[in-house]
Amino acid sequence: MGTDRTSDGFSTRAIHAGQDADPATGATVVPIYATSTFTQESPGQHKGYEYSRSGNPTRAALETALAALEGGERALAFASGLAATTAVLSTLKPGDEVAAAADLYGGTFRLLERVFKPWGLVPRYTEETGVEGFAAIVTPATRLVWIETPTNPLLQILDIAAIARLAHDRGAVLAVDNTFASPYLQTPIALGADLVVHSTTKYLGGHSDVIGGAVIGRRDLLDPIAFYQNAAGGVPGPFDSWLVLRGIKTLAVRMERHCANARALAQWLVEQPQVERVYYPGLPDHPNHEVARRQMRDFGGMISVRLKGGAAAAQRMLTRTRLFSLAESLGGVESLIGHPATMTHASIPAAIRAARGVDDGLVRLSVGIEDVEDLREDLDQAIS
Ligand SMILES: Cc1ncc(COP(=O)(O)O)c(C=O)c1O
Predict the structure, then answer these.
(1) CATH top-level class for 10-249?
(2) Under 8 Å between Cβ of 170 and 126
(3) Is the dihedral of CA 294, 145, 211, 364 positive or negative?
(4) Per-domain residue ranges for the chain?
(5) CA distance 91 to 115
(6) Which of 136, 215, 225, 241 has CB atoms 3.0–4.6 Å from 59's, for a disulfide?
(7) Catalytic residue set
(8) HEC assignment per residue over 62-104
(9) Is the shortest distance between the CB of 236 and ligand 1 below 6 Å?
(10) Fold for domain 252-383?
(11) What is the pLDDT of residues 100-152, one digit of tens each?
């Protein structure tokens, strides 16, 4: 629905792509088409919509906007980020291999290990952030390379262009979970990726009030996923689609504040005597800082931190913040603090987590857009 405005700037696309005035009423803002079905003039004669699992105008507007923001030919919206990931993995066959970076959202790891592995998919993981790690685990049976960057929760940065070249040389497709960066900070398709996946629950929705997901990419790759979307049915309702659509209008200004606040807090945390290590790709000594500078517009709103007092100090910090809410998720206007080991990454077995550094001493911050002085004061009193 609506024009895609591919030649316009990012903020213009965020506000206008797919969001022309409503053809039926002139409504300036895309309406919430709360209908399960559409009346036909005669059997098979309709205005482009038949049944809301197959297509709904509010969802179609969101899909057009998402494709325009990521620079993809087509986008498909799903009921959650994991439903979007499931749709991509469902296009593979038993015996196909997936090469993935080890630092992954816990739910994605669980989906690979406990749903798709028993079904016949063969996941392989690399601990290395460089392209050599992927070169070692990609085999002739690898159909899909799956990465997040920045990764969750260690904020590693992976070189999208280099990994895309490797995947293509070996006949595989590269999918990038772009949830942590958002299309404002990084557009993987422009760097050579074939598919982009989002949990729209996060920065795209931006207000912690909706669960959603999306897949964006080339039409030939999206067509089988569109078939799956309709056949399996994990679609977002019109109200959820509308909430994400409303969220993305302000994505650019929100991301600028998220990044500015996170940069200031990361620089401050580094100087605190209680802090052992700060994981933030914007810090010049971050091991992947140069790659981040090359492929991202800014360094994002997520920080992980390790305190010198280990697990006990982490527990104290987690229970003492007043502005940072102790809650799962990220990417909303309000700041959140989380404990990956027991929250977002609890679905990864403890031994595997600990070996990767996702242990009880690690704390993850989703830096919101509040006044940065208030956020700093809150962290200060929590670690003091
Ligand atoms: C990087 C990343 N990908 C995917 C997901 C899954 O998204 P959802 O919770 O919307 O299913 C999450 C959720 O935290 C995430 O952080």
Answers:
(1) alpha beta
(2) no
(3) negative
(4) 10-249, 252-383
(5) 14
(6) 241
(7) 53, 105, 177, 202
(8) HHHHHHHHHCCCEEEEECCHHHHHHHHHCCCCCCCEEEEECCC
(9) no
(10) Aspartate Aminotransferase, domain 1 (3.90.1150)
(11) 999 999 999 999 999 999 999 999 999 999 999 999 999 999 999 999 999 99
